[in-house]
Amino acid sequence: MNVELLISDHVGTKAYLPVVEEGIEWSTERRSAPGKLTFKVVNDPVLNIGEGMAVRLKVDGEPVFFGFVFTMKRDKGQVIEVTAYDQLRYLNNKDTYVYENLTASQFVHMLAADFSLNVGELEETGYVIASRVEDNTSLFDMIENALDLTLQNTKEMYVLYDDFGKLTLKNIASMRVGEQGRYLMVDEETGENFEYSSSIDGDTYNKVKLIYENEDTGKREVYIAQDSEHMNRWGILQHFDTLQSGENGQAKADALLRLYNTKTKNLRITNAFGDVRVRAGSLLIVNLDLGDMCVKNFMLVEKVKHTFKLNEHVMDLTLRGGEFIA
Question: Average pLDDT of the chain?
Answer without folding.
Answer: 91
